[in-house]
Design goal:
48% strand, 4-stranded antiparallel sheet, 124 residues, mainly beta, 1 helix, 11 strands, 7-stranded mixed sheet
């Protein structure tokens, strides 16, 4: 079982930046694809970004393209989400996810492994 632990959420004003981190307890096929999804009350789950172990096929939701950057440090089993130019509509609980492939990010389905989430709140 892969354990995922997120950190780095918080409250910022619009235009600000935050960096989320997600550390996996191990490196297996199940962590080949790591990424982030978010959910807020009354809204559907949205896949935000994903990245494969070899940094291929990096994906971003249209809503965050040009503002968010995903990266990973395989030596540390950690994936990062650098968020800039934050908007109030980015407010949500952000969850780290992991699976062998990244289909869950594109479809909005829950990943096989997920963390407990970290809250991001952006005020106007």
């Amino acid at each position: 079982q892969v354990q995922l632990v997120e950190s780095g959420g918080g409250s910022v004003q619009a235009g600000g930046s935050l960096r989320l981190s997600c550390k996996a307890s191990t490196s297996t096929y199940s962590t080949n694809c790591m990424g982030w999804f978010r959910q807020s009350p009354g809204k559907e789950r949205e896949g935000v970004a994903s990245i494969y172990t070899d940094d291929s096929d990096t994906y971003y939701a249209e809503s965050v393209k040009g503002r968010f950057t995903i990266s990973r440090d395989n030596a540390k089993n950690t994936v990062y989400l650098q968020m800039t130019s934050l908007k109030p509509e980015d407010t949500a609980m952000y969850y780290c996810g992991a699976e062998g492939t990244c289909g869950w990010v594109y479809s909005g389905d829950p990943p096989l492994h997920r963390g407990q989430g970290t809250q991001v709140t952006v005020s106007s």
